[in-house]
Amino acid sequence: MSSLKGKIITVVGSGLIGRSWAMVFLSGGYEVKIYDNKAGQASAAIAEIKSQLSLLSSHEDLQQALEGAFFVQECVFEDLEAKQTAFQDVENLVTENVILSSSTSCLMPSNVFSRIQNQTRCIISHPVNPPYYVRLVELVPHPKTLDTVMDVTYSLMTDVGQAPVRLRKEIDGFALNRVQYAIIAESWRLVQDGVISVKDIDLVMSEGLGMRYAFIGPIETMHLNAPEGIEDYVQRYSEGIKRVLNTFGPVPEFSGEAAARITKEICELIPGDQEHLTARRERRDQLLMGLAKLKK
Ligand SMILES: NC(=O)c1ccc[n+]([C@@H]2O[C@H](COP(=O)([O-])OP(=O)(O)OC[C@H]3O[C@@H](n4cnc5c(N)ncnc54)[C@H](O)[C@@H]3O)[C@@H](O)[C@H]2O)c1
Ligand SMILES: *[C@@H]1O[C@H](CO)[C@@H](O)[C@H](O)[C@H]1NC(C)=O
């Protein structure tokens, strides 16, 4: 990957995620150009980080921003039309070998890239917030994406210190959100059904499952949790797992009386005003920073 050092990456959209990508790419030694279609946004974004970042440049002209780039990371609003338009504009201004990468959390590659002529160069690189401390990037191909595009993106992400994973095909929610939504759904149902409090279900994760999940995933957990490994685990526990899974209820509505009750409970623990939320987010980032150091 060292051959890519010194090359240019363009970030389209200079909000929260655009700025984070810029920092991540910069710290990997790439030159970064940020474009935003709202006047003053791109320069405002770099004003705060300007002092250390001599390789970062802001542009209000897309063509200029794309000049020389081998990789374009799109981070505009999570809106299909906005992304399709942004990519159309970009494709019209770049040469054939430039990789077009989207940060989308929830949109499918075949929709995001539907107006692109050469879809073999398109890929989703979905970061987790905040990307500085949570290194995972989900790489999701369009059905036509070339293996080499996946490989170059994978190497790039590794090179800048992120932890990429490859999805072999597109699926709604990718991998991270599918797992996250399964956890959200069952946590919600347990509180909704009066089994446990909001405070305690969050502790089930933060003091229980989360302790090991920062280091080992669910499949390795199965492998380690029976004397003879995963086959032994499956033999011992799969009947019980299936019995419990069959008692899971329908998808929650996330509305009505249950939603009001859960909102009230969490807001008693953490009031929903900006001051309290900001303080908790800062605490979260501090703790994640410590965990990231520990993992290294
Ligand atoms: N915030 C998160 O936690 C998170 C995590 C992972 C992925 N994402 C994804 O990253 C993307 C960006 O999210 P964000 O939180 O940075 O949003 P944001 O609203 O903070 O920033 C969006 C920026 O894009 C600019 N913009 C809009 N349309 C544009 C266009 N056509 N050309 C250039 N610039 C344009 C806006 O002016 C704004 O500065 C979304 O797809 C989102 O789903 C966000
Ligand atoms: C499409 O993109 C791929 C990957 O960048 C490139 O190798 C190929 O030459 C492009 N095809 C055309 C017709 O531009």
Which keywords apply here?
single chain; 296 residues; alpha/beta; Rossmann fold; N-(1-d-carboxylethyl)-l-norvaline Dehydrogenase, domain 2; 2 domains; eight-stranded mixed beta sheet; 12 helices; 8 strands; 49% helix; globular; binds nicotinamide-adenine-dinucleotide; binds 2-acetamido-2-deoxy-beta-D-glucopyranose
Q: Can you walk through the features of this model?
A:
The chain is an alpha/beta fold. It folds into two domains: 2-166, Rossmann fold; 176-295, Orthogonal Bundle (N-(1-d-carboxylethyl)-l-norvaline Dehydrogenase, domain 2). It is built from twelve helices and eight strands. The protein has helices spanning 16-27, 41-47, 62-66, 80-91, 109-112, 147-159, 176-192, 198-213, 218-224, 230-245, 256-269, 274-295, and strands at 8-12, 31-35, 56-59, 69-74, 99-102, 122-127, 136-141, 163-166. Helix 1 (16-27) links the parallel strand 1 (8-12) and strand 2. Helix 9 (218-224) packs across helix 10. The model has no long low-confidence stretch (mean pLDDT 92). Nicotinamide-adenine-dinucleotide is lined by residues 12-18, 35-38, 41, 75-78, 82, 85-86, 103-105, 126-127, 129.
How many domains, as an integer?
Answer: 2
Broad CATH class of the largest domain: Alpha Beta
CA gyration radius, whole angstroms: 22 Å
Q: Let me know the average pLDDT.
A: 92
Largest sheet: 8 strands, mixed
- Order of helix and strand elements from N to C terminus: EHEHEHEHEHEEHEHHHHHH
Shape: globular
Spatial strand order of the main sheet: 3-2-1-4-5-6-7-8
Count helical runs.
Answer: 12
Bound molecules: nicotinamide-adenine-dinucleotide, 2-acetamido-2-deoxy-beta-D-glucopyranose
CATH architecture of the largest domain: 3-Layer(aba) Sandwich
Q: Termini separation (Å)?
A: 21 Å
Helical proportion?
A: 40-55%
